[in-house]
Give the backbone structure.
Amino acid sequence: MQLTAPADRTTESPRTTRRTGIHDTDGMAVASFVLGLLGLLVLNVFLGPIAIALASVALWRGTARRGRALVGLGLGVADLLVLVAFMSADNTMSWSL
């Protein structure tokens, strides 16, 4: 059993090395979709802008999940629109059912 990382990195196979780039942007696209969806229910003042930012970065970097990023962007905008609608109805900074 080995508890520490090997000192010589040349023995690693190509499958164990992690590629960054397109995989990170795919994760950003999925995260923007999930956060935008959650933002419709709770914490839309925080989750909406985060979903918009993640979707924008994923689209800018050229994600393979372009549709998911666009839906995340739309949901982030919808989060903010829902917040504005309920704020104007209640005259408060938050809303409750």
About this structure: Helices lie at 22-39, 44-61, 66-90. The two ends are 54 Å apart (CA to CA). The chain has a mean pLDDT of 81.
